[in-house]
Fold each of these.
Amino acid sequence: MMHASFVTQPHSLDYATVLMLIVIGSRIDSLERIESSNQSIVSIFALFLGSRRNEKNDKLHLQLQTIDRSTMGILWTAAACLAGLLVIALVTLLLVPIILAQITVWRYAFQRQSQKQQQTRKSWNEFRSALHVGTVWHTRHLPVQHAFRYPLFLFCLDLQEVQDGLFANTLWPLSTIVSFRESDHLKNGEGLQQQQGTGKDTAPAKAKDNDNDNTLQARICRLVAAKTRDKFQPTPATHRIILVTHLCYYGYCFNPVSFYYLQERQTETRAVAAPPRTVAVVAEVSNTPWLEMHCYVLHPDSVDMLAVVAKTQAKDDSSSMNYVFRKTFHVSPFMEMNYNYDWTFSPLETTVPVTTTTPAAAAAVPLRITTAMKTVPKTDADSSRLQFSATMNVHRRGLHPMTQIAWQIISYPAYCLILQIWIHYQAAWIFAKGVTYQPHPNEMADTTASRIIGTIMTPVFLLQDWLQQSKQPPVKERDTKKQV
């Protein structure tokens, strides 16, 4: 029985097992097909999504390329416009002085050839007013060494020739870009007649023949008379006034210092053996950025003077004048007030012989001004130390509009603006070398420019103070254990 059952049961089990295996296999096959179909669907969906993403990426890439191209187009257009404007500006700065100078030469030549004015019209080298070209040196000796030099051109103007129409007539139309404005000088009202006194500089002198004359030369004469307490009373009739200054170039004028030479009038001849004698000098000083102006009257009887010394030059036996006076006007924000000025002026030649026709001959007449600033000794045992010195050395070039004035304007357009940039550039170097900033003694003198500069420089001042404090040696701690 056991054997029979053993024999017969396996057959039944095998059929059941086979049937079960067939069912399970079919299920597995269907599951695999479903899984493979699902994978294919997923892959197709992923491919679809990828294609959609690629389409979006391509569109985005095309948009970015379009934006980049448009931006580059705008940038290239702006650069081309800027380059075009720069070329136009350079061509304008080059051609405008030449055209105006040539018109001025033709116009003056036509006026000279007229019969009525043939005897009175001068050649360009016969004017007392002239362009001067040279170099200026600045040297700071204390507390740090700092020196520089730069090219310089300025004008020596006979104020009588200016009043007679030097710029309004003779140099027109060049005078539209190179002009002289009386409003740029004596801004505090010095020497004005019938003025309510605002200070000792503006007190008018006693009544003279120029009472109702408020021209620049008459005001200078009254200023000199007031500063010398009427001991010296020049007038435009007795003294010629030569102003050494920068003009207004393209509408902008800035003068760190201008000098008025008061010279005794001589017989009006074209050949003079010696330079006219200079009897006084007025120094008109400006400061930056406070935009103030102050006048020192340099004359033996002036209230500004400490000492006046005449020095003889061995070469031509002409005498230069040396003036020593106290500093009473704040100029540089890196210098204190406790100093004496020591200035020396060489003779100023304002006439050229009639045989002088070339610029080289006219350039042989030099003008040299040397300035020094020395510390004031605190006691009799102390000696003054040289703090600062500067030298201006220029040569006469005549007044020809084309060969002289136009050439300088082309070489240094807007020279006064360039001068301002040079001043601030050197001030930055001085500050970087550790020189202490000196604020204006009068807090009411602040201007918009000075406040802006002060605001910008405040972090720099704090950094400088921190660096100076960090360089100081540490203070030794006190012994707290010391017995009382």
Note: The chain is about 40% helix and 20% strand.
Amino acid sequence: MRDTTERAHWRSLTPPGRVGAGGRAPEWLAETYWRSLVRTVAGTTRAEGAPLGPLRLRLGRRGPVLLAFGPAEVRRDGGGLVLRYPILGGLATRRPGGTLELVLRDDAAGVVVRGYAQRLAGRRGALRPVGVLYGVCQRGVHAVVTRGYLRRLQRELDAPAVGP
């Protein structure tokens, strides 16, 4: 039985090489992602905490914490920027573990989830249909959120620079 989720979504950035990914501020990349997530799910989920973490995704205003993330590990490598958030827990997880990575390179941007143990997916027996349905829905929501973020990121990168 596969116990964890591995998922990646990428978008080529146009024109390649113009982004200057290595010079972007980690805070900007983080804020862009979390704002896009909240906007995409129409306010049903709220991000609490600093954009670089620790951070919690809460259902509604006072609902349960769906996912909790630790502080992002910020890494710059070869002209790119990677923010890696450890997944600490929450209602949507079976156990702590795994990471959410926001990646910005000169030619592409991506969101990578590694080692995330979904609470309901992968169930056996009578709960198997519930787990399958949950897995399909969760993948769909993740895909919609990620596509929205990558489109927003491209728009922000295309916007003319403001300032001196």
Note: The longest strand covers residues 80-89.
